[in-house]
């Protein structure tokens, strides 16, 4: 039986993902829970949805660590008549602490974006851009050039399956080597990817007009960077298992008894899309 207290876990999380490394608009750290409560099971997920919280409660979790905040914007009520209120109530009634590591986990090394870099096939990478004095995204070179189609297929295989799949803008037979990336929503760094000389930019939540403009601007550079929208949930979920393994290792290194500590990554896909219709397969792919 683990004798860990929440405060012990918080100390490691805040050393690994410092609160002051988050963006100024972000809301990270402890949301619910008592620092003195015991921690025997830690659950991890991208989003603190009602289904994820119920899954954590049913699993007997004492702590739920999520990437996305539950209370990013101000609320005036936590009554169960709203989804946010129902989530807070479920956490409190279930005695489940909630901890959020968001943009401070994005910039960490290792963190959300280094996990995505590995999925992209990069063995080394560096920050793509700097905002508020903090590195954003990653950029690096593949060991060998590959076609855009093979790159996208390899990335899709490395990511957890999501209903919307992977969308690609660019000719399938184009060769790519330099890869820029940003887990989560990233059309704000399209220019940074181009400035970094990327052949392909991997991110998610790409909007029509920014991508269309960026692709037209790319014509003078031979069409690069090509663009891959790999899904918000998928690109950020890769980090969860790595985070838990590092957390347990750090707790053990700090002298805590982790023999009775159990960890689990949520099996729930919180991508809001559930199915697609009419997508045209890549030429040569099975129908």
From TrEMBL:
* Keyword Metal-binding (UniProt): yes
Q: Name one Pfam family in it.
A: DUF34_NIF3
Q: Which UniProt keywords apply?
A: Metal-binding
Please give the superkingdom of this protein's source.
Bacteria
Protein's UniProt keywords contain Metal-binding: yes
Where a divalent metal cation is bound, by residue?
A: 67-68, 106, 232, 236
Gene3D superfamilies, alphabetically?
A: NIF3 (NGG1p interacting factor 3)-like
Gene Ontology cellular-component terms listed: cytoplasm
Extract one GO molecular function annotation from the record. metal ion binding
Per UniProt, subunit arrangement is:
Homohexamer.
Q: Which family does it belong to?
A: Belongs to the GTP cyclohydrolase I type 2/NIF3 family.
Recorded protein name is GTP cyclohydrolase 1 type 2 homolog
């Amino acid at each position: 039986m683990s004798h860990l207290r929440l405060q012990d876990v918080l100390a490691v999380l805040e050393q690994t993902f410092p609160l002051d490394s988050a963006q100024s608009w972000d809301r990270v750290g402890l949301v619910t829970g008592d620092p003195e409560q015991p921690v025997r099971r830690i659950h991890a997920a991208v989003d603190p949805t009602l289904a994820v919280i119920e899954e954590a409660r049913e699993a007997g979790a004492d702590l739920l660590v999520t990437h996305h905040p539950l209370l990013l914007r101000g609320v005036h009520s936590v009554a169960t008549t709203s989804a946010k209120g129902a989530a807070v109530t479920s956490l409190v009634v279930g005695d489940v602490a909630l901890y959020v590591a968001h943009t401070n986990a994005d910039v960490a090394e290792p963190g959300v974006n280094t996990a995505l870099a590995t999925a992209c096939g990069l063995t080394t990478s560096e920050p793509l851009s700097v905002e508020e004095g903090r590195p954003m995204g990653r950029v690096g070179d593949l060991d060998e050039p590959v076609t855009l189609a093979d790159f996208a297929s390899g990335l899709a295989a490395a990511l957890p399956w999501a209903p919307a799949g992977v969308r690609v803008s660019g000719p399938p037979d184009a060769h790519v080597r330099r890869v820029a990336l940003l887990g989560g929503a990233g059309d704000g760094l399209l220019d940074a990817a181009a400035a970094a000389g990327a052949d392909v930019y991997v991110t998610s939540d790409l909007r029509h007009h920014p991508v269309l403009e960026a692709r037209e601007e790319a014509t003078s550079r031979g069409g690069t960077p090509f663009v891959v929208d790999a899904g918000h949930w998928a690109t950020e979920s890769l980090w969860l298992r790595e985070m838990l393994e590092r957390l347990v290792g750090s707790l053990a290194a700090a002298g805590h008894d982790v023999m009775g500590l159990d960890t689990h990554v949520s099996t729930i896909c919180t991508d809001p899309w559930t199915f697609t219709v009419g997508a045209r397969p890549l030429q040569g792919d099975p129908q």
